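Project standup — Tuesday

K.O.: blocked on the structure for the chain from last sprint. Re-posting the sequence here as requested.
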Amino acid sequence: MANQQISRSAYRVIMLVLLALLFLAVNMFSNVMFRTARVDLTENRLYTVSQGTRDVAASIEEPITLRFFYSEKLANDFSRIRIYAGHVRDMLEEMRARSGGMIRLEVIDPEPFSEEEDLAMSLGLKGAPTQTGDIIYFGLVGTNSVDGLESIPFFTDEREQYLEYDIARMIQNLSRPERPVLGIVTNLPLDTGTGGLMSAMRGESLPFMIYEELRDRFELEFLEQQFEAVPARVDVLMIAHPKPLDPRTLYAVDQFVMRGGHVLAFVDPHSEVSLTAGPNGEPIRGYTEMSDLGPLLESWGVHFDPSKIVGDRAIAQRVRTGMDARRQESDYVIWLAVPRGNVATDDIVTSDVVRLNLGTVGHLTPVEGATTKFAPIVFSSEDAKLYDVDYVKQGPRPDDLLRGFEPTGERFTIAARLSGPVRSAFEAQPEAVTVDEDGRPVQRRSGDKAGAHIAASQSDANIIVFADSDIFDDRFWVRTDSYLGERIAQPIADNAVFIMSAIDNLMGSNELISLRARDKIDRPFTVVEELRRTAERRFLAEQEELERRIAEAERKLTELQIGGRGADAGLTEAEADAIDGFRAELLDSRKKLREVQRDLRRDVESLGANLRFVNIALVPLVLAVLATAAAVLRYRRRKARVEKGA
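H.V.: unblocked you, prediction finished:
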């Protein structure tokens, strides 16, 4: 019997050892075989990359190296960074797995005073200092096989919703060894400034500051405003307040969109930047006050009314109205200072826009029955109305514009994104025009010629239309100073941010453009927030009354104590009793106030305690009860079998 008992004990020990070994083997096997396998159970699929990102990763043809710099040891005390870093690493691992081996991922912990820290600094990453003086690095650097380099200096909370887009855009930029080409059609002197061509020939030109930004980021190709076709090398076409385009040029733009080209268009009912006086005190020769794209906008699904200008009291710019010291500034309702609340924060293009300074803007409306999706990305407030362009041209004063201002209660769309399939605005290629409206021979761009007519877009169109051209005007968004012969720019608005973000976004594939902002990892405790608001409403009135009583008691106590005599000595018995009474009331009121403030937190703390109990104690307790019940049931069944066998 003893030998049998010993053998059973040994059997149990052996079984436990075998189970432990099996557990370790299964874990090692799963880590190797299912390393990239993931199950995303979050409500908004936070850890699942979009199809567009998968396509970007799968289309890489040359190897790309991503170096993720993360000070893991230093960040242990910062839970927010630690959680966010886990999300970033998961996203990078997912993209690496989708690339078919074309993405090489390195995770680097740059410890203080190490070679890795020197490398992070040399690659332009920014560190966040801690209270102990150490630097936390939390950024990404990507390189390709031809010395291309892209970086995210630091993963900030403000860009967390755009994490997938930022990484996917970096990968796509690295997969293109050459700088993207931006085609420009404009009647604005972007490259010469208000001095025009003559000043440029004398070496006196001051290009628009936005032109300097564009030249640093892209390869620019200016198209004459009469051409047969958009060159095939152009990735994005920017049309910025053009002069009236003839049918053949409009057709060339139309066919560019039909072939899958992306367009950023700026039209204007009254362009103030085009009227800016040059060196001789007059606008540049050939200027145009109004711009439109005729049938193209309608075919894209947007209607633009060039006879109306938006006025908005709520977001009007403040301007100087004269030298009168009693009133130097006034709201100029046709110049808008568009705040963050009037842009689409869920769109990649406007995600970093805090303020846009615009002048005499038009408005856009969707065409009924259009095949494209019309998504406003910049819009007015509801305290807005429309003015006739002819009235604005008369130069009304700010007070005249405000007098009798009656808002429509409608938000007017100033800029919109258009996406989806479109049909050509033309049945066929228009006949060639040999002379312009002034009777002069038309000189067309040589080289690229119009191909066969395309009636419908070969892929979904991606177009952004902005009903203003003054967004380019330096005086609206930037202050410039001269230092050692160099122009130093100090932006006062995000006009350049919008333009650069729009072009950057449209430079990507349709898959990349389709990416939108995601929810953050942190989810709000809605129940806790509702409890807090309910408690505040319940106790706010009582708290205010107690604070009023405390203030009144303190005031009366001070009057009695000082009373012009400077001390308690010399007070009458009645005054001394009154002082004691006010002191007692003061102490009682403060005690009640503390109780109210404790009550204010009680419900929230109670909920927190309940949640901790559920997470820490209740679940294990339920499992223990179930295990005990199963053991008792098993014991009874075994006992019944033994008794039955006996």
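K.O.: great, moving the ticket to review. The longest strand covers residues 329-339. The CA atoms of residues 226 and 547 lie 74 Å apart.
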